[in-house]
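Hi support team,

I submitted a single chain yesterday and got back a structure, but I'm not sure I'm reading the C-alpha cell output correctly. Could someone confirm the output below corresponds to the sequence I sent? I've pasted both exactly as they appear in my results page.

Thanks,
R.
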Amino acid sequence: MTATIDKAQFRKALGSFTTGVTIVTTRGADGKDYGLTANSFNSVSMDPPMVLWSLGKNSSSIAAFAGTEYFAVHILAADQEAVSNRFAKSGTDKFAGSKVARGHGEVPLLDGCSARFECRIAYQYDGGDHVIFVGEVLNFDHFARPPLIFHGGNYGLLLKKADETDVSATFGGDWLGNLLGRAYYQLLMPIKADLKDKGLRDVDYNILSVLSMGDGRTAHDLAQLVAIAGYEVSDDHIQALVDQGLIRVEGQGQDRTVHFTQEGRSYAIELLALGKSAESDAEGELDYREAQVLKLLLKRVIRSTSDGLPVHWRKEHFWRENNIWRDDVQAARA
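Hi R., thanks for writing in. Yes, this is the structure output for that exact sequence:
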C-alpha cells in the first residue's frame, strides 16, 4: 500500500535543496515571445550536450513550449531578482524593459544573466503533473556573473568559500570576535598611519569622527558618543586637539560646545577619504552583492549583541533621554 504523502510537507522538504533560478524563453508558433521563471533546470549529458527542465501541465505557456522546436535557458545573475519576479507573473508583458537578442528559431535571448543556453527540443516526457523537456544544446554563453539562487522559498546569494588557511591560523581561529577585531584593525591601518604622522591618537580620531556626524556637540554629549568606541574623553584630549588647531571650544563647563576649525573639518574629510579607500580595497574580492550582505549581517550581529551594554553606549537610548541626534539615528538606520 502506497503511503499518503503530505503535499505541503513534500514541497517544504524539496525546498531544502538549493537551486539556481532560470528563465526559459521560446518563440511560439503564433510568432509571440514566451518566457517563464523555472528552477527545474538540470544537466543531462556532456556528450552530446543536453539539458532538461519541466513545466506544469496547467501552465498557460504549455502549448507554446510543447509546440515549438527551440528554447533558451537563462541562468539568472545575483542582481536579476526583479527579472525573475517579472517572469514568474502571468498576464504581464514579461519582456518589457529587457534587452532582447534573437537566437536559433528566433528565440528571445535576455541580457545580463550568469549563463545562457540555446537548445533544440530533443525529447518531451510525461512527468506526472509536469512535462519534461530535454534539449540539445546548440550554443551557450558564460558571463561569469555570480548566480541568483533559491532555497526554502526565498532568494539567496551564493558566496564562494575562500581559502581560510591564513586567517584560521591566527589566535582565536574562527571566533567571530577575533575575525571582526582583525578586520577592523586592518581597515584602520592607513588611518592609524596618518594619525601617527600628525602626532594624533586613536581617541583623537574618534572625537573627530563624532564631530563629523554633527558639529557643535557639548563636551558631555561628545564624551558619551565617543564612549561607544570604548574611549573616555578627558579635558586634556580636547585641549590637545585645540592646540593642534583642529577644534575650538565655546562656553564653559559641561555645556561648552566643541566645533571644527576649518583645518579640522578638512582633515576629517581626509580621514573619511582614507577610510573609504580602505573599504574599497577590502571589498576587492567581493562583488557588490556580497559587500551588501556582509554589511547587513554585521548590522544584525550588532543588534543581537546590544543587550547588556552600558547605557551610555546605546546611542538610541541616549537620544531618547536627551531628545537629540534624531538625524544621526535615522541616518544610521538608513
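A quick pointer for reading it: Confidence is low (pLDDT under 50) at residues 315-334. Let us know if anything else looks off.

Best,
Support desk
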